[in-house]
Structures
1.
Amino acid sequence: MWLLLVLWLPLVAQFLVMILEFQVGVTSMNPFLKKFFPTVYRNKMRAHENNYCKYNNQGLAAFTSSLYLAGLVSSLVASPITRNYGRRASIVCGGLSFLVGATLNAAAVNIEMLILGRIMLGVGIGFGNQAVPLYLSEMAPTHLRGGLNMMFQLATTLGIFTANMINYGTQKIDPWGWRLSLGLAAFPAFLMTVGGLLLPETPNSLMERGAKEKGRKTLEKIRGTNDVNAEYEDIQEASEFANSIKHPFRNIFQKRNRPQLVMAFFMPTFQILTGINSILFYAPVLFQSMGFGGDAALYSSALTGAVLAFSTLISIATVDRLGRRVLLISGGIQMITCQVVVAIILGVKFGNNEELSKGFSILVVIVICLFVLAFGWSWGPLGWTIPSEIFPLETRSAGQSITVAVNLLFTFVIAQSFLSLLCALKYGIFLFFAGWIIVMTVFVYVFLPETKGVPIEEMILMWRKHWFWKNVMPSNVDDDQSNGNAI
């Protein structure tokens, strides 16, 4: 029970964070477009234009993507703060950044002020995404780590759904509904900051920073027993080695950390290249391009958010029983199928100046929901869970920073380029993402070992048993550790 209370606050913070991140639904609101992007508004109102290109505007894309570029930089800054001052410190920093960003967005009078507010929200995203998965992984017992870590994704998906519902309501408030939608960031910013101040620090972080007795007491409290000797000794050994590493960002490039480094790069890269963020960011725009009305577009995007939240429950219920690989591979196969089906429908039935029939429009929404469903039980939560649990303590904060930075880098690239890609590739955009999903599914099958049930401080042994990675890692652990200490 005490553990659930500990995990509740970061999850609530993440839930509210994602409300803010997906407030980009305001880009489909006419008052918002008229004030900040009049060219896009005029294109939207024209009776005849290329369906795929009406929203193609780099300023509009910059409004969305600036958050992720700022998050990329701040996640790297967050790493030494998380390691030297604890996971709570990064959560508090993130909350304060959100508060500033919310204020700027709600009061924006020009595009510069609007983008500056998004940048401050991005700083909050960088700190929050760096600290929260680590916090959950270190607090969770081994046999529940997968499910509890996926609560991070559940909080994310519920936040997306709530954001879509907020946009659906505020778009009816003319002309200041968009200000209310963006300004609601002040409430989660407050909750995230206060939550960070109230949270206990993780035993791993406490012991890494020398507070061994306090770390043991925290461990006993969250496990509900005094019999924690084995886990305590594992953490103590890991913390002693972690403290011998003065430059974790250099150490992470040692051979013994090569498999984890590869996963820290490719898992978040592939997660974005599924195309999910493009669908979620631009769902209202995408559905309006297909001929849906303004209300119907927001309603359809809210539906995808609800499906994403539901599918995460499937993952939570199955990840510690079926394992990570099964979910990733099955999800990949379903996503490939859905992307190809949507591409065929749009390619055959959707012309430059035409609208989809009602029947085909409904079919597209259903197939997109099936795509989101597959993502929600596979790459959505596991794209965060796997990198957060595979690194040894000495490189864990650095590894998580790399994971977050890579995720945000590719999110920025896709967010900035999606509208142009949609205009250039048209329905081929779905085939583009389908191709990447094929690559990532094969990658998981070949290179990712199963991490289900492996204690977080014993992950190194798992890599040494893998058919490929055992040939990459050094044959002698002590030799490699001594090399790492020299760095």
2.
Amino acid sequence: MLGCKTRGFAFTRALLGIAADELHLYGDAAAVPLIQEMLKVTDDNVEVQPYGRLSPLVPLEVPLGSFSNIKTGDCVVTFSRQQFYKFKKQIQDGGKHLCSVVYGSLPPETRTRQAMMFNDETIEFDVLVASDAIGMGLNLNILRIIFSTMKKFDGVEMRELTVPEIKQIAGRADRYGSKFPVGGVTCLRADDLPLLHSSLTAPSPVLERAGLLPSFDLLYMYSCLHPNSGFYQILKVAALVDQLPLGLHEKYLFCLSPVDMDDEISAQGLTQFAENCAKKGIVWLREIFTPGTHQVPNTHSKMKEFESIHQVLDLYIWLSFRFEDSFLDHELASSQKATLIEDFLERLGCWPKPNARKLSTRSSLNSVFSKDTYKRRALGGSGREL
């Protein structure tokens, strides 16, 4: 992750900036030389402690072949939104298993609850359908990792999984302390097995570069040296806020905000927040967000819309911690975050339905964003307000 082009800067910032007397880093040995070089500059003492895997991971010689061969504890890995629910339906139609789902665009708290359901032996959700999000901080009782494909779209192109990606995902099988004595990893199709097996035995490429985002002080120094350069020239992702009457530090904070600019709704949310902040000084969530009657998403495309809306609510919360005097609807944003997404998963059979769950006490994300920005066909909709 340290060398990731889009997210690596966050790990570098944590490595160099966490206020702690002692910092423990866990990861692939391929990152060690670069980390050692970086920390020479800061005069930190670095101690490298190698760890071996505490439970065996066995590459299987036979592909799964069919979902009729699924067992309790299996995790099917895919990278397509449509495939998550397609595979889940196929597995559950067999009548032997219920599935939890875990993928990156689910809200973190929802991912965690889905993982907990899969781990809980008292609940009948005994198979997991997941993306590579399972490799990020989730402890799971997985018997076998089953790759449905060895390719993914990375935002630019469809490509084969890298050696580190394959190892990270495969390694989630039978983590130490799980209920399975041996973990296995295989593929859905036989023609994917050679890449899987070769990757598990290959060394990871040594990391040569780490992501880095300029600090505000560096941006300020640059702006002083180049007074005629706009913020867009200083930091390219600032195109949306460059022309707004905001201070350099305010623009910098907007650029650091957790927003997916490739997502139309999220990008529009950031734009409207920045414009309101610049023009009014106070950004009321209620001006662009109105809780209404409870409407559970009933299609996958509608689910995608509400995942985007959840990202906008997360963005508002993040900004409320940085602009305390401007983003004042923190509690409203926090209370509205995940209800529809969880109800959608419940409707699809990805959520238990205890009698204690009462939908009548929940607000919804109906009539969501303002007419100015969101009354349009975002994600191929019918022109309705999102």
